[in-house]
Amino acid sequence: MKSVRKIELLSPAKNKEAGMEAVLHGADAVYIGVEGFSARAAAGNSVEDIGELTAFAHQFNAKVYAAVNIILKDKELPQVEKLIWELYRLKVDTLVVQDMGILQLDLPPIPLHASTQTDNRTADKVRFLEDAGFSRVVLARELSLGGIAEISSQTTIPLEAFVHGALCVSYSGQCYISQAIMGRSANRGECAQMCRLPFDLLDSEGKIIRENAHLLSMKDLNMSDQLEALLDAGVSSLKIEGRLKELSYLKNVTAAYRQKLDAIFARRQEFTRSSSGKSSIDFQPDLAKSFNRGFTGYFSQGRGRDIWAFESPKSIGEYIGTVEEQGRGQLTISTKQTINNGDGLCFFDRGGLNGFRVNRVEGKRVFPAQMPDINLGAKIYRNYDHEFETRLLRKSAERKILARIAMGQTARGFALEIFDEDGNCAVVAVDCEKQKAQKPQGENIRTQLTKTGNTIFEISGVDIQFSDECFIPSSLLGEWRKRLVAELERLRKINYRQEIKQIKLTSHAFPQKELTYLGNVMNEKSLAFFAAHNAKVLQPAFEQKPQKNVPLMFTRHCLKFALGWCPRETKDKMPFAEPLYLRTAQSKFHLKFDCAKCEMQVVGNEGITRQKKVAENNFKNYNKIIR
Description:
The chain has 627 residues and is of the alpha/beta class. A hairpin with a 2-residue loop joins strand 16 and strand 17 (330-335). Helix 4 packs across helix 5 (145-154).
């Protein structure tokens, strides 16, 4: 018989309210940023809020992971050390970290997860992190299912993989373009997401190959149809991206993946969920209805042509049909979907993605608030479903833990026991004069004892073990039930076991003997860590000492492949002179192609100057649409 492996659905938490909703909608764990030290600076939270979220999640044996996943300055280390102790005392389950200097601090016995920012692509790297004391490794998004299986076969550490949400075009932790142009470090939580901006692609003679296209913008990841394959490859934690997303996204996506996982568990007894309780969802989840730039499996099945979104970095939502007719102030859309007043519809034209708000609907006839310039046959997408979004503004889920009550007589009154699905048991004994009943009381007793209302419990049955029929007022039964449930809640808190793991200093060799700026070494503790592991740091972090004429981005996305000029795919010669360049309004980048590794590098030229104000002005029109 195969051993049972616990599988975790891990959801993002922008704040404590979002984290609580994620738990209610079926998350087994949530990850949340710590104010000032998270890789999403705009989604930082106070220690107090994280503590409240942790107490809430632990009711369901769900876990809370605090993201402290930026590279740190020396002056920040004492503050971070104090912060970690505060999080530990609040029973936060894990820290997600990038900076190896943290392992050199005086730490409490709290488990550490190696962030995807530590660039975890190989079995050697994952094995090193396992031997260094990490409890989990978050894998690079670029890995194929075969690559994940290979790492799993050579290591024993639990593996976490992204399954949904926005994709960084560069290997995480290896992108410096935002720092170089705008002074905003991705490794410090301030990424400006330059990859979502439009570029011109030029050849060496300055000829424009593609103009004003989002050449580094990827579609969004969707692995909902490959979850079973991920589990078979060795992944134990399935991670949803989106700490900057709206609450409706979090509810919808979490619920959708919860339902898909539960369907797998019903067939595959060797897998089980890692937390307690069952979520009841009051809507029909639909991944296409939440923010997405179109979906891709990225490199899960190898290199494909479905990964990029050159036309626009905006959300396209769900495809609903085509324009059938045009009239004065109206469109007829050929669709099987119901379009509602207030919906947001969009379409692609030569300018990219354009859209309009639906003012009124009559059958398939749509009356836009402002009539768009659109062609017959144009494909129509809905990126804002008014009714769906309105539904998600209200309460949309609850989560209950199954419990059973047994009630019997004692010499002095009655005894009530409650057993929950995790084996916790609470007992309440009451002294009470017994009154003989004139008629059967079982139905009323069961009715009163199952009224658990707004508690976290759902009573699946009541066993009445009376030798004689006794009359008990409903008010007393209600009082006893409240005492019983409160006692079980208290015991669940006491019985929750925070995992303990003390990091010990190690000295095994790092997979690389020398580290450049790509090592992201920014403080003395990190320097000491790599020295202890036989790695020489040749250059400090890019944020400390920007390098000239070096790659600012490393990516498996390849523009030669995308445009049909991959030498592995075709014998046709590219009709443009190399090297190729990407150009924005203020900068020009040289493209290098490493065909042996099947990678592209975006290189900063010596002439690049940081024009922060200009760059931010160009970027401000995009900062709301790229999340």
